[in-house]
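Priority: medium. Attachment 1 of 2:
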C-alpha cells in the first residue's frame, strides 16, 4: 500500500472558498490564497480547487483563481469545474494546475476522457464520480451530474470501471448523501469504487472526525483523503490527521 496522502479541497464561488451540506446551504469559508498557503505550510500533500458553480452557470473554470492559488504553492494542484474540452484542460494546466478533474463533461462525452488521457497523460486526468444511493442500480449507487443535481440512470461503479479503461489516472467518488455532513465518508460507496479499479481513489465527502480518515483508508480503500470543512474551520490540522494515522499504523506522506 502506498503512503496515504491528505488533500484539502477549496470549493470556490465568486472568488471565495465556500462550504455547503449536500452541495447546498453554502457558507463562506475564507480566502483561497490564504488557505492554499496555510495548507502547504501545514503539510498537505496535494490541493484541489473546485469551481462549484461553473457547470450550473454553463461557464468555464475561472482561470484567475487557478493562477492565484498555484502561485503560492508547489504541491500538486487538481482543478475541477466547467472543464469540458481539451482546450479547457490545456488552459487550466498552463495556469498552474498539475491535474484536472472532470465530471459532467466526461459523462456527456466519454470519448473526452480517452482523448484527454492520450493528449496530457493519465496521471493528469481525474474523474469525479458523484453518486446517490439507488437500489435500482446494480451497485446500489446512481451517477449524478451538474453539481449533484441531475441523476443520469447510470451505475456509478460501472462508470468508474469505464473511466479506468478510458485512461483516467485517478477517481474521486463523492457520495451526495454524505457531502458536508461531517458524519463520515460513505465507506460503502468508496469501497465499491476502490474494489472495482486499480487506479488511486480519493475519499471525499463527509469527514468529521480523525477516525473517519482512518476508516476511509482502511475500510474504504482510498489512497488520498480529501476534506474541506474540518480543515477550513480548523477542527483539525493536517498534521493532527497525519499523526493520528501514523499512530494507527498507517504509512502517510511526511
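Attachment 2 of 2:
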Amino acid at each position: 500500500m502506498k503512503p496515504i496522502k491528505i488533500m484539502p479541497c477549496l470549493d470556490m464561488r465568486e472568488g471565495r472558498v465556500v462550504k455547503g451540506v449536500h452541495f447546498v446551504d453554502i457558507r463562506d469559508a475564507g480566502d483561497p490564497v490564504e488557505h492554499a498557503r496555510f495548507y502547504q505550510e501545514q503539510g498537505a500533500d496535494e490541493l484541489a480547487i473546485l469551481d462549484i458553480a461553473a457547470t450550473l452557470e454553463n461557464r468555464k473554470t475561472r482561470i484567475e483563481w487557478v493562477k492565484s492559488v498555484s502561485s503560492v504553492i508547489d504541491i500538486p494542484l487538481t482543478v475541477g469545474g466547467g472543464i469540458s474540452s481539451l482546450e479547457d484542460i490545456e488552459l487550466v494546466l498552463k495556469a498552474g494546475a498539475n491535474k484536472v478533474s472532470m465530471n459532467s463533461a466526461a459523462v456527456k462525452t466519454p470519448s473526452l476522457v480517452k482523448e484527454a488521457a492520450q493528449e496530457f497523460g493519465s496521471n493528469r486526468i481525474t474523474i469525479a464520480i458523484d453518486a446517490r444511493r439507488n437500489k435500482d442500480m446494480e451497485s446500489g449507487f446512481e451517477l449524478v451530474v451538474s453539481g449533484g443535481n441531475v441523476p443520469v440512470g447510470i451505475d456509478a461503479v460501472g462508470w468508474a470501471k469505464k473511466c479506468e479503461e478510458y485512461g483516467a489516472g485517478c477517481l474521486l467518488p463523492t457520495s451526495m448523501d454524505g457531502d458536508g455532513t461531517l458524519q463520515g465518508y460513505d465507506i460503502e460507496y468508496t469501497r465499491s469504487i476502490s474494489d472495482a479499479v486499480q487506479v488511486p481513489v480519493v475519499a471525499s465527502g463527509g469527514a468529521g472526525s480523525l477516525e473517519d480518515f482512518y476508516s476511509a483508508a482502511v475500510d474504504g480503500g482510498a489512497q488520498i483523503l480529501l476534506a474541506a470543512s474540518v480543515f477550513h474551520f480548523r477542527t483539525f490540522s493536517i498534521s493532527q490527521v497525519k499523526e493520528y494515522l501514523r499512530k494507527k499504523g498507517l504509512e502517510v506522506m511526511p
